[in-house]
Amino acid sequence: MSKDVLSVVKKKTGKNVTPKDIERIASGVKPSTLQSETQLRQLIKQVSGLVNVKVSEETINDIIQAVKSSKLDSNNMQQLMNMMMGKK
């Protein structure tokens, strides 16, 4: 797990997250997760629970729309991580 990811999480949420925490969630993510609205909702709620930050239904809908409308290759999780961290 990149230390960049962990530092972005800490900076954005003020919470310490371990690589093991992220690996536990990531182990359940498959390329099909990005195609299923139900699975995306579940993933968003898992991550928000991990960092103990409430995510509004409106924000969840915005995230789902962004993922669905993006041209991300669902097989390339690094591309998704870079997008979430603000890298190009």
From TrEMBL:
InterPro entries: SpoVIF
Protein name, as recorded: Stage VI sporulation protein F
Species per Swiss-Prot/TrEMBL record: Paenibacillus silvestris
Species classification: Bacteria, Bacillati, Bacillota, Bacilli, Bacillales
